[in-house]
Amino acid sequence: MKSNDWKGRLGVMYSTNPDFQYNTEDGEEEETLPKEKQQLRISLDKRNRGGKVVTLITGFRGTPDDLTSLGKLLKVKCGVGGTAKDGEIVVQGDLRNKVLEILRKEGYIKSRII
């Protein structure tokens, strides 16, 4: 932890122990599963989106960087916007079949539409 990272210490009280170490809850990143073993679920979602329809890809197991790169690949191939965070990828519009086709071409063979 940086010495000037005061946001990470907000919940810590003062300690007089000279050997005290801040317990940062930085867990190890989950290792990304191979493409063949990923079980991605593709669904249509329009809850809490102002009536807009999005394609939601869930079930990704891996690092946030790999999730972001897969999200970018899908957005570029579909030619739309979206986001990749919190273990799910959101692609604007109803593109379930196109996303499934792209994922299967990339090697995610266990992907399915729900």
From TrEMBL:
Family of the protein in this entry: Belongs to the SUI1 family.
Pfam name, any one: SUI1
GO BP term (any one): regulation of translation
Key words of the record: Initiation factor, Protein biosynthesis, Translation regulation
Stored InterPro entries: DENR/SUI1_TIF, SUI1, SUI1_arc_bac, SUI1_dom_sf
Source organism phylogeny: Bacteria, Pseudomonadati, Bacteroidota, Bacteroidia, Bacteroidales
Transmembrane segment boundaries: none
Record GO terms (molecular function): mRNA binding; translation initiation factor activity
Protein name per the record: Translation initiation factor 1
Region of interest: Disordered: 17-36
Domain of life per record: Bacteria
Domain SUI1 per the UniProt entry, residue ranges: 47-107
Organism: Parabacteroides chinchillae
